[in-house]
Amino acid sequence: MKKKVYLAVVTTAVLMLTACGASGANTANETDMSNSANIEETVNTADTANTANMPESVDATNTSDATDATDASTESNIDLPAYDYPGPEYFYHSVYQYIVQEYASQYEAADVSIPYVNEIEVDMSNRDDILMYGDFWIFNYNLEGDTLKCVSGGAYPGVIHLNADFDVVSMDVVEDGSNFTESAKKLFGDHYDKFMEVEADAEAREQIRAQIIANYVAANELPITKYQDEGWDPITLPEENIDSFYSELD
């Protein structure tokens, strides 16, 4: 099942979306525009003598505006590095990178694509076919100033298959539309109820999403402080917690 983000996401069905949706609402978001302020300077032309003494080649108002525009452009003119899992465990590195490589290309190119991974269960009973049940998303962002603006994305809950070397082999994704419930029950089995709890918890999803972004920013020492979905206020990123957020497998 794939939810492409516009403005809202229902937890029991998959929506096709083009802009990140409501942060922290019970509608999930698959991807996010900018507010600008114009500064006007008034030149007093009543005193013709003073006006005459001003150099004809200098337009104070236009010079100031041009400088402001250049500064704003410079702030956003950063070549963002591709997302790279910053934790210690190759198992999770494979999962995070798979989500980016498999799904980011399904959307129009953005400055950076950052995955969201919420693990529900890992079954290692068969080391040749390790199963990771989870809620998986891809979010695509463009950088404006110090804010990552979400422009697209989607949800792909399901089961990821890994081999004994912890390389992703394949992924089974929950179907959308009228087949959602039946498909989810089939894929998640005994973990279905837990999946539905995770799917419905938009607040927890946003917390994890924000932390993954914050750790990406910290790992790459980027001057980014917020992220934003279309139609919603920017959200300030939390402190990075790379050392504790990404744990090693037992």
Could you please describe the fold and organization of this structure?
With 250 residues, the chain is an alpha+beta fold. It has a domain at 90-245. Helices cover 31% and strands 22% of the residues. The protein contains seven helices and eight strands; from the N terminus they run βαααβββββαααββα. The chain has helices at 48-53, 60-76, 90-103, 180-188, 192-200, 202-219, 242-245; strands at 3-4, 112-123, 130-144, 147-155, 158-162, 168-173, 226-228, 235-236. Strands 1, 2, 3, 4, 5, 6, 7 and 8 form an eight-stranded mixed beta sheet that branches. It is globular, with a radius of gyration of 23 Å.
How many helices does DSSP assign? 7
Mean pLDDT: 80
Query: Using only CA atoms, what is the Rg?
Result: 23 Å
What would the principal axes of the Cα set say about the shape? globular
Span between termini: 30 Å
Order of helix and strand elements from N to C terminus = EHHHEEEEEHHHEEH
Share of helical residues: 25-40%
DSSP strand count:
8
The amount of beta strand, in percent, is: 15-25%
Low-pLDDT residue intervals, each spanning 5 or more residues: 5-16, 24-75
Largest sheet: 8 strands, mixed
Structural class by helix and strand composition = alpha+beta
